[in-house]
Task: structure prediction
Amino acid sequence: QVQLVESGGGLVQPGGSLRLSCAASGSSFGIYRMGWYRQAPGKQRELVATIMSEADTNYADSVKGRFTISRDNAKNTVYLQMSSLKPEDTAVYYCNARRVVFVERNYWGQGTQVTVSS
Result:
């Protein structure tokens, strides 16, 4: 099993930046596709970005060019660098780990609040 703990959320003005971190417990971090999802007020949870390796990433159209996902397998950590933040980025951001070897399993963090407001 995997436990995920997000950090780095907070209040930022439009145009600002934040970096979210997600620390995973357990072993075999490399067998998980890692991702960030978010849920804004009144909306369903949506994909923000996922990563298996530097060469294998996926982004929602709404964040392309502004957000960058990365991972450090040695530290069991995935990051989301967010720049040029907009009020519509306001949401609870959730870290996700999806096991892709042998059997599929999904794990979720508790979420971290990101609020973009002046």
